[in-house]
Write a structure and sequence with these properties.
Chains A, B: Its main location: nucleus. Chains A, B: It comes from Dendrobium nobile. The structure is a homodimer of 202-residue chains. Chain A is an alpha/beta fold. Chain A has a single domain, classed as Nucleoside Triphosphate Pyrophosphohydrolase (Alpha-Beta Complex). In chain A, 23% of the residues lie in helices and 37% in strands. Chain A has helices at residues 32-46, 89-101, 171-174, 178-186, 188-192, and strands spanning 8-11, 17-22, 49-60, 63-71, 75-77, 80-82, 113-123, 143-151, 156-161, 164-170, 196-199. In chain A, the strands form three sheets. In chain A, strands 3, 4, 5, 6, 7, 8 and 10 form a seven-stranded mixed β-sheet that branches. In chain A, strands 1-11 form a two-stranded parallel ribbon. In chain A, strands 2-9 form a two-stranded parallel sheet. In chain A, strand 3 (49-60) and strand 4 (63-71) form a beta hairpin. The A-B interface holds A 1-2, 4-7, 61-64, 89-90, 113-121, 131-133, 135-136, 148, 151, 170-172, 175-176, 183, 187, 189-194 and B 1-2, 4-7, 61-64, 89-90, 113-121, 131-133, 135-136, 148, 151, 170-172, 175-176, 183, 187, 189-194.
Amino acid sequence: MVSPTSPVVNIYPLSSYTFGMKEPKMEKDTSVADRLARMKVNYMKEGMRTSVEAILLVQEHNHPHILLLQIGNTFCKLPGGRLKPGENEIEGLKRKLSSKLAANSLAHQPNWQIGECAAVWWRPNFETVMYPYCPPHITKPKECKKLFVVHLSEREYFAVPKNLKLLAVPLFELYDNVQRYGPVISTIPQQLSRFQFKMVNS
Amino acid sequence: MVSPTSPVVNIYPLSSYTFGMKEPKMEKDTSVADRLARMKVNYMKEGMRTSVEAILLVQEHNHPHILLLQIGNTFCKLPGGRLKPGENEIEGLKRKLSSKLAANSLAHQPNWQIGECAAVWWRPNFETVMYPYCPPHITKPKECKKLFVVHLSEREYFAVPKNLKLLAVPLFELYDNVQRYGPVISTIPQQLSRFQFKMVNS
């Protein structure tokens, strides 16, 4: 039997991290329809899509904040992306985090410590809607997306693609805000509630 | 670093459990106002209220269902309740589960195996609203409620108080249904999404 103690996450102030800029990372698709069509083509070739995303935590005023990438003026997403066929999910998430947030110089790679799985979402059809379970009667889901808590070191340098903005959004802003952040990101506060956050003020 | 593998929960068919009836367990309060007033009195005597609740899982048609206690025709709650001052949360949850769902005979006590903490909710004020984090600037929360996954054995006998109904509600019914189940119960599917459910068909 698993012990019911809560995992501990150290959270450092936003100000202990340094942010720079790098070349743009454009979205592969310019519309939702294009995106779903590309998913379908990939599914025919490689089967179910597996994607991994990171919950990166910082604190301001002793309240946890999550780092989100903003595209344009409204759409926000977690850093992460699709695994290659057969790729290990931890290694794949490190690769995706470096591609989205690390400097190009190999000397400046953040120490990505991939921690606990926080949630798993399923896409039953080639549609935008996802569920936190595989719905009954769905034998061939089209995507499985896993969210992991990443334990950041006390100091890091992040390089943000020019076309994106990196935002630190407080839990109280995400909570109950499905209109702005969608069903996956707006329920991160509930998924994180079992953790013990240790606010480290350096 | 914690390994990011998902915990496994065996889930047995609803039909492998037996249900009986026992004497009614009345609610202590007849209105929300009474309940909040009683909370205030207890807070003055004992400090922050700590409550523990159980997520009991069964399956039907290979889909996970949660056992909820229904009071009257609409209100549903998880089995559980308030800890005594200083009481251990695991022991306290076992005590509450036996009081709500076990036969009075000590020979028929279910094997309550209290597992993972699934979520923690905070009540900042003597009001009904709770949050999955302690809101900033709240130094004296009035209640902390913890939800635990309980690993049921393959066969058990449950005795349900006469004035309550025990319902097995599928995850797909809870999901995105805050109107019917409230914010705590309706996001249980997201909190459980990280688990690997093993449907055992006996």
